[in-house]
Amino acid sequence: MKQIIKLLIILLSVIFTLACSNDTIQIKGGIDQVSVQSTYNFSYNGQEIEIIYFFEEMLNYTKLKSENPTLDNEDTFTKAVLMPFQDKSSIDYYNLEDFLKPTNKLNQLEENTNELLENAKKISRWIEEAIVESIEILPGGDTTFYVFPIIPDDWFAIMNMKGVSGASFFGNKVILMLDPSFEEEMLKYAVAHEYNHTVHMSHNGTQGISTILDRIITEGKADNFAKTLYPAMTVPWTVQLSENEETAILEKLNKIHDSTNYEDYDDFLYDNSTIAIPMWADYKIGYKITESFINKNPNTPIPEWTKMDAKELVKKSDYSNLLE
Length: 324
What we know:
Layout: E1 16-19, E2 25-26, E3 35-36, E4 39-44, E5 47-53, H1 55-67, H2 73-89, H3 106-118, H4 120-137, E6 143-149, H5 155-160, E7 164-169, E8 173-178, H6 184-204, H7 212-229, H8 243-256, H9 262-270, H10 281-296, H11 302-307, H12 310-315
Parallel strand pairs: 5-6, 6-8
Antiparallel strand pairs: 1-4, 2-3, 4-5, 7-8
Helix pairs in contact: 1-2, 1-3, 4-6, 6-7, 7-10
């Protein structure tokens, strides 16, 4: 699972200010009649949080293609969805082909988007609750969430990631992709995960995700953080490794942990025909190493280990021999 890097925190005695004037949802029946306030803003502990929905843009895309089947699918998607997104986010949509792409399942996408639209107030509330809980234990900066429906073709995210996918970008920007099948706890877990990424990336910059080890530990930090807030949440990328799997992963990682070559990272994850490296190997070993550090250093505050250099964290875990 490749992602661009994915989320939240501090004291209880601070002012919580909620700006809910953009909270109104109106559905008037029919795709061309749907009207929704597309942004939701609130602040907590001095952090400004903005949630921007792109449900209307997706519905505009499905409407244009349904009414004009001869239109080029990719071009229509770019003009209806990607360009408005770039205008609001300053994120270059050319880097988003793994997340935002057109589909031929237009009716299903329209149905899914309308269902998400009907639940936008609930989605905003759950994201807000996750952010507030995160800020209580990990202060960060002003953060923007961009929320899209998952396209129906993305069965992997729908089936294996419980209908929630996310990615974090520099500048405290997060993309969330949702299928109507998602559940509250999974959304909150994903929000916390991505928020931890934004704090880590804001503090460490590109150097914090430059090597294979950096990226692996970054994911381990995010999942341990999310698990701290939502301990009952079980996700497949933190499932316990077998002894053989862990040995195979560590042997390969020992040789390439300093590499900054994305091809080495891909080989580590996907060229596993002769070794017992499982799916989500990077997430699983990153989670295990970070968990080991936390257990060995229980007095280290969450903000400190979130911002800690990957090698320093590994050296203070039970996996220090990985660097030898």
